[in-house]
Amino acid sequence: MVDLLLDARALLGESPRWNGADGRLYWVDIDAHRIHRTDPATAADEVIQLDGPVGCIAPRAGGGLIAGLKDGCALIDAWGDTPRPFGPQMLAGIPEQRCNDACVDAAGRFWVGSVTSDKANPAAHLYRLDPDGALHTLFGGLLTSNGAAFSPDGRIFYHADTPTHALKAYDVDPATGLLGEGRLFHQFEHGTGRPDGGTVDAEGCYWSALWDGWRVVRLSPAGELLQTVELPVQRPSMITLGGPDLCTAFVTSAGKNLTDEERARQPHAGGLFTFRVDVPGIVQPGFAG
């Protein structure tokens, strides 16, 4: 059963990340320029208001957060602190791009992609930000970098360029963070939703939130559809697994750009949703910088 945890009315909810250290879910509303911290036990919600879009966040190993902002990445040392730029601001001077989806690998590196509003120009990229602040461009030719997640052993990296409706899998060297060739992991049929944010569980299965698809799905390590969970919103944006036993799914959603008729069908668009799963998630490493 899917439950509404928080009727957040987010414009573009994204990047849910469970932090076991304080038992809170951190997530963002990109277009409202907000970082949220939600207590799932009470639904109490705290907000950091920023002065620009925040595409993604992740906890840091030493406390605080790393955030992908308009121009690049920034560190937030403690809740409520002002973000301070960290690493090259690779998107500065590119008004049509901002940071989007991201994840952290077992070595504490931040894999962050960009999105471009110029949909005729696939100019977005996927980057890897190392703990020492070094930035590496992994590949480009993207419109909307999304779906970043690692297999439990850290040897497979999953990624989607959302408009292609395709999820890809890449071999990766966990020690160096170098990628091998990509291969098609799962192709979604056009018109049934596009792969947005995702996560991997302890069995190595990949959960994907399907934008415009009204659902999230669980795929086997071979890319086969195993499970579908229908949602009361058209645009689920990302899923993560958390809670004390890592068996609670948290799903963000978007409420912007809906017609009156569409909004009437989904009054809780932009909400934060939960449901229980049988297979737990994996503990997500923190950024080591």
UniProtKB/TrEMBL annotation:
Cofactor(s) the record lists: Zn(2+)
Positions of the catalytic residues: 196 (proton donor/acceptor)
Chain residues that bind substrate: 98, 100, 118
Residues that span the membrane, as ranges: none
GO molecular function annotations of the record: calcium ion binding; gluconolactonase activity
Membership in a protein family: Belongs to the SMP-30/CGR1 family.
PANTHER family: REGUCALCIN
Stated name of the protein: Gluconolactonase
Source organism per UniProt: Sphingopyxis indica
Lineage: Bacteria, Pseudomonadati, Pseudomonadota, Alphaproteobacteria, Sphingomonadales
